[in-house]
Structure formats: C-alpha cells, structure tokens
Amino acid sequence: MAQIEGGISPFRMRILRSDQWFARNDEPGTRHRSVLGTLGFDMERIAGRPVIGICNPRSELNNCELNLGEIAEAVKRGVSEAGGIPLEFSAMPLGAELLKPSDLPYRNLVSMDIEETLRAYPIDAVALLCNCDKTIPAQLMAAASADVPAIQLNGGPKAAGFWRNEPVSSGTDFWRYWDGYRAGEVNAEEWGHLESCLSCSSGACNEMGTASTMAATSEALGLMPAGTSTIPAHDSRKLQAAEAAGRRLVEMVDEDLRPSRILTQQSFENAIRVLMAIGGSTNAVIHLHAIAGRRRIQLPPSLFNKIASTTPMIVNLKPAGRYLLVDLHRAGSIPAVMKEIESLLHTDCLNISGETLGEVISLARSFDRDVIREATDPIYKRDSIVTLRGSLAPKGAVLKAAAASPHLHRHTGPALVFDSYAEMLERIDSPDLRVTPETVLVLRNVGPVGQPGMPEWGAIPIPRKLLVQKVRDMVRISDARMSGTHFGTVILHTSPEAAVGGPLAIVRDGDTIRLDVDKRMIDLDITEQELRKRASEWNPPTQRHLRGYMRLYAEHVLGADEGCDLDFLRPNSDEALPRVEPTVGRS
C-alpha cells in the first residue's frame, strides 16, 4: 500500500492532499480506503491517485442546471481516463427564478459550503459545475479561498422559443412584452401563448444576462475552458469539453496549478474588459468585487470607469443589442471577443490550460461581423457600464449605459419615493400617482441589509398611466439590483444603502435629482445643511431577521461597493489568505 511516509507517493510526482487520507498504513488509512471501497474502487489502487471532486448543484428546484448530471458523468469519464478518482458532491441550488426574495445572500452561503467541503475532504482538485446567476460567482469565490486546482464548467444557454415568428429571449423580451401587456397592447390570450415560449428547455437565460455574463468573465479570468461558456445546453460539444476538463484536472494536480496563480490583478482587469465589451450584466460588478476580495485584490470604482472609458462594446446581444447566445457561439464565442480587444488585454495571464491568454486566443476570430463587431465599428463606443458618484451615492452607484435611453443620460427631475417594494407595487399603477416622464422614481430599503439580500427589484415598472402614453423609459434609482436581462435608465447598487443611513434614506418627494452620465454624477440637489438635518432625524429600520443564516448575513454583509460578501470571509492581510492544507489525524 502506498504511504506518505518518506515523502512522495510512488504513483505521483508529488505528495497529494488525498495521500494524507489514503497513503498510510495505520488505522485511519484502513478506514479511509474502505470508504472508497464501498463505491467500487479497488482499495489496493486508491493511494497515490488524485481525487477529483465534482461539485454538482443539480436540482429540480432550478431548471437552469438540470443538464449538469450528464456533464458530471462526462467529467468522471475524463478523470478516470487520466488515472484519477472522481467523487461527486452537491451544493445548495441557487435558482434565480424560484429562490425568493433574493438569491444573492445564498451566494455567500454556498461559497462557504464548497470551501469547507474542499477543506475537510480528501480532494486534490475540483470541477465546479454551474449555470445560474449566483452559482457561478459562489463557486469562483470558493475556488479563490480554497485554492485547490479548479476548472469551472457551465451548463450553457437554453433553446429560444418563437412567438409571432420571432425568437423570444427568456428575459429581455419578457420585460418588453410585459410592458405591452400592462399597457393593453397584448391581450390575455396572446400573453398565454407568449408564456409558453419563454423557457423551452433547461439551461441558462439565452441572452447576455447575469449567468452568461458571469460565464464569460470566468473564461476571461482563466478558470473556464476557452470557448465553452456559450455552447448551448444540449449540444454534445458541452459533454466533450467536460470530458477534456476531467483529464485536464488530473494534470493540474501534478502541475500544482491553483487559482492563486490564475486570479491576479491583471486577470481581473481582463474580466472587466470583457464585461464592458460584451455589454454584460451590472450584477457582474458586485460579483467581481466579491471574488477579487477573497484574494485581497482591489477593484475600485475608478478602475471600472477607466477600463470602461477605453473599451468598445462589440457584442450585439440582448438586452443592449439584437441577438442571442447561440448566435454569439456560432460567431466565435468569447475567445473571438477577446481577440478583437487583444491590444487592451493582459495577454500574459495564465489559463487553466497552462497557456497564456495570448496563446489561448491566438487563432480566434469573428465569423459574423454583425454579432461580434470589430473594435473600430462597435455597437456602443465605450462606457457600456459606468459607476456614478455624487451626493446621492458617495460610495457609488452603477448604470448600464448601453441599455439606457440616450436622451436620459443627462436628466434633472423631481423624486417620487417608495419606502419599500410592497409600497411600490401597491401604488405604481394608481391613476392618481403624481408622476410625469420627468419624474425620477426612487426605491429604497431594498439593499444588502435593507431587505436584506438586495433583490433584483431595481427595474421599477413604468407607471401604467405613462405606459398608455407610450413612455417606455424613465430614470429610476434604488439600492437594489436588476436582472441582467433587463434594460432602461436604471441606477442600481446605490451605496451606502438607505438601511444603513445612506443619502437615499433622506430623499423626499419633490427633491430634485440630477443625473449626468458623462460626468459620472448622481446628485441630490439639497443644501449640505439640509442633508445633515435630515440625517440627524433618520432612524434605522427594525431588523426583521432574528435568527439563522439571514441574521448572520444582515449583521456581517458588506456594502454593494465591496461585493456584498460577508466581512469575515475576506482576508485582511496576505498572511490571512486562505489555502486548504489540512493535517489528518485519527478520526
């Protein structure tokens, strides 16, 4: 039996983490090997073979990730072919559709779950299977903290339905037609037909929503195999990529190629570049902050604005463009996007393949210039996502300028304030609502602490009395988030949030709010004296969650400007950077 005594296992070129469980001739070693024996593994051939964990959150609570079971099987084939031992484990499903009121708090919980699984079990490397909005960043946060070799694989976008002979995206078109339904332009029977077209297969949203954005940024960071994030959910090439990833994970164990060698300042700057080039989801700003924070990497608002100001948006996908994910895949996928902006990227960054980014994209090119444009002929010249600051958002707020109405980029109007989501829903369609197209709609107390959980409630509906007047956009501000599939002049993530005393908490009906996207400014037009007076009269809302995880979350969550991670999960020094290196004793 292989032993860890004397150093290196005779079956590998280096000591494995799992050797501490299996390559020993004492009582714990016997018991550990017998556990894998119950799974059918030859106990005489366990020690010295790398154990590859397969994190599979597949659940019928989340149709987005229903195909992860067959992907897991493909990964297992690849691991076995390369001489490793594949062991599958689960994680809490993070279904953005059914998990209410918000899936964001559970991103942190799942990241802890995965990190502790990697820490506590004999796992030498991990395949992270994902597809939904928060699963992807949760796994990346865990990988950054656990720092064992890791490859992330997504399930891919769902098939498009068709309505009135037009392809229907699962989010963006829904929002557009919903406004038409509320305005009486789509009748109940037509709406019933449309409903059946929104989700015609399992898989992620099929436009540039949060799931596809985060998969693209995972590719840009170097942790997802190049060109795989856009493969459709039921395309056999997804399984081929998964099998190859299983083989590669075994190699990465020998190479000791950990996320800490891949997740660098430069790779995060590449991810921000790609975010801007694809016209991605505003949610990615929060998630990139959270992932980077696990490695003590800073991504200040000034960095996002600097990168945005020099990055053309070249991908023509909904909600800011015309096409769907399947079109991006046939046009060359994310490698082709990165090739178009290659001069703006740090091409020496390392990839899970062991190659540099420059080598990975060397042969990539666009096969459809209407889907992936040349950098000199962009969809949107620059600044597809901007960070705003001012007296209303001292720590910043985010706007997806590429999906906003150009005529509202400079706007001054009176505030109409909603203190809660329930109040907004109750009042928004009232014929007596005192609102005009110039009004700035304000929703507060829906941030990380306020709800708590920061739901995707920021895209406040256009009041029905304006919809019938053909108004389809107006300035809206909140401390909430917004679905990556949504659009409009919607200012999000206002920080500090209202529930902790941010300026949003003291806005009153009729106050003048000034927006200037070019100047990156969002201001509340009251005097400093009046601002201080109102702040002194403000009382924090009562905390409604008195127990369990949500109490822990509300007490420890960081602001949107820091990624909404839990404060105790972020290392405060280089010495505190986590790395999974347990010592196994008697158990």
Describe the structure.
The chain has 587 residues and is α/β, with parallel strands linked by helices. The chain folds into three domains: 270 residues, Rossmann fold, CATH 3.40.50; 34 residues, no CATH class; 151 residues, 3-Layer(bba) Sandwich (Glucose Oxidase, domain 1), CATH 3.50.30. Helix content is 33%, strand content 12%. The protein is built from 20 helices and 14 strands. The strands form three sheets. The protein has an eight-stranded mixed β-sheet. A four-stranded parallel β-sheet has the order 2-1-3-4, with helices on both faces. The protein has a two-stranded antiparallel sheet with strand order 5-6. The longest helix is centred in the middle third of the chain and has 20 residues. It is globular.
Keywords:
587 residues; alpha/beta; Rossmann fold; Glucose Oxidase, domain 1; 3 domains; eight-stranded mixed sheet; four-stranded parallel sheet; 20 helices; 33% helix; 12% strand; disordered C terminus
CATH homologous superfamily assignment of the largest domain: Response regulator
Main sheet? Answer: 8 strands, mixed
Number of domains: 3
CATH architecture of the largest domain: 3-Layer(aba) Sandwich
What is the CA-based Rg, rounded? 25 Å
From the N-terminal CA to the C-terminal CA, the straight-line distance is 20 Å
Strand order of the largest sheet: 7-8-12-11-10-9-13-14
CATH topology of the largest domain, which one? Rossmann fold
Could you tell me the mean pLDDT?
93
Number of strands: 14
Percent helix, as a range, is: 25-40%
